[in-house]
Design a protein that fits this description.
This protein has 110 residues and is mostly beta strands. The chain is 0% helix and 27% strand. The protein folds into 2 domains: 1-39, Single Sheet (N-terminal domain of TfIIb), CATH 2.20.25.10; 41-110, SH3 type barrels. The chain contains no helices and 9 strands. The strands form 3 sheets. Strands 1-2-3 form a 3-stranded antiparallel β-sheet, with no helix packed on it. Strands 5-4-9 form a 3-stranded antiparallel β-sheet, with no helix packed on it. Strands 6-7-8 form a 3-stranded antiparallel β-sheet, with no helix packed on it.
Length: 110
């Protein structure tokens, strides 16, 4: 068996070295083994690491599909849940809107 690490994207153990990167032979994902593990962190717009249960403040008016008004800048959102594998990596409930997903690049830690 090989001593190479499995693919972080598809978890396949069939990887090979190419230059200074590892490449997955199943999904062709190229990754640097020294940087694996940093992808699970979710950072706010200032670079602070967010955790489940944190409170954040929305820093930009965010339009919501199907809603007549946007989520206003300055809205405080409590008790967030993180989804690091998704584009909208914060799940939360906002008063007046209900459950929704936000992008961490538009919030800062409260």
């Amino acid at each position: 068996m090989s001593d190479l690490m499995p693919c972080p994207k598809c978890k396949s153990e069939f990887t090979y070295e190419q230059d200074n990167l590892l490449v997955c032979s199943q999904c062709f994902y190229e990754f640097d083994p020294s940087e694996v593990g940093n992808e699970d962190k979710v950072l706010d717009m200032n670079g602070n690491e967010l955790q489940n249960g944190d409170a954040v403040v929305v820093m930009k008016d965010l339009p919501v599909k199907g809603a007549p008004k946007p989520v206003k800048a300055g809205t405080k959102v409590k008790n967030i849940r993180l989804r690091p594998d998704s584009d909208h990596n914060i799940d939360c409930k906002i008063d007046g809107f209900g459950a929704m997903a936000l992008k961490s690049e538009f919030v800062k830690k409260a």
